[in-house]
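Entry 14. Two folds queued back to back today. First construct below, sequence then C-alpha cells.
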Amino acid sequence: MKKYKSVLLKLSGEALGDKKNNALYSPEALDYISEEIKQARLAAPETHFSIVVGGGNIWRGARSTGINIPRSDSDSMGMLATIMNGIALRSALEEKGIASALLTSVNIYPLAEHYSRRKALLCMENGSIAIFAGGTGSPFFTTDTGAALRAAETGAEIIFKATQVNGVYDADPNICPNAKKYDSISYDEALSKGLKIMDASALAMCLDNKISSLVFSLRMPGNIKKAILGEQTGSIIHP
C-alpha cells in the first residue's frame, strides 16, 4: 500500500450542482465533497494536495445552449465558471477548518490569487490545499488538460479523477450491465480501445510526464481517503 506524496484531485462542476432542482449549487453536495476532502486531508496531512474543479454546473459551452458565441468566448465563460466553483469549494473547506488557497490562471485579484508554480508549491508545503481554477488560461483546452498541466507543474504523482462511476469500463455500465471494469490499464491500451478517460491533450501530457490517473466514484464515501492512502479503489491508468 503506497501513500502518495503529491496528488491532484479533479472534480467536475456537475458534482457541485443540483440537477433535480435545476440549481447551480447543492448545499448537500458541497458539504459532502468538502467533508470527504477533509477526511482525506486529515488522514495524510503531509501529502501535497491540490484540486482542479470544472464549471459544467454553470456553463457547458455555447453548443449546449444553442447560443451563437465564438468558441474562444464560450471557453472564457467556462473559465469564469470554474473560478466561481473554486470560490464555493474554498469557502466550504474553510468552514470545516481546512486551509486552502484559490489560484487562478486568470488574474482576478482580489477574489483569488493569480496562479504561479511557486505560489502553488509554497501553499502545499505550508499544509494548505491548492485549488486551481480558470483552466489553462487559454481557450480550446478542457479542464482535463488544465488538471494534467497543473499536475505536471507541481510534481503530482497521480491525478484522482472523481466521477459518477467506480472506475474505467469498456462500455457505459449504466447502459450495459455486462460492461467490463478495468482495475489497471495503461494509457496506450486505453487509447487503442477508445476508452474516453480524458481528452487527447491531457492523455499526452500525462504520458510525457509519467503521471498516473485513478478513476473512482465520488458517490462512495471514503473513496478520496482510500485513494490518498494508496488503498485499492476504482481503476488506475498508468504510463
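Second construct, same run, same settings:
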Amino acid sequence: MLGSLEYQYPVTSVVKAAVFYDLGNATDSLASFSTYAGYGAGVRWKTPVGPLMVDLAWGEDRRRPRLHLAVGYGF
C-alpha cells in the first residue's frame, strides 16, 4: 500500500459515515510495479471490541464494486 485518505463524519455518538481513497499495490518485483486506485464509502460503528466497519468500494483495476467488512483495529 502506498497511501490512504479517509474522512469520517459523526452521525451519532457511536456511528460515523466515512469516505475513502486508496492508492497502491503489492508486488514481488519493482520492475513491474504499478499502482491502482480504490475509493468508496462506509459506516463505522463503535462497539466494545473496536469499530465495526462496513465499506462499499470501487477498485479501478477490477472495475466492479466490492463489499468489505472488518472489526477492530489494524496493526
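Quick look at the second one. The longest strand covers residues 36-47. The chain has no helices and five strands.
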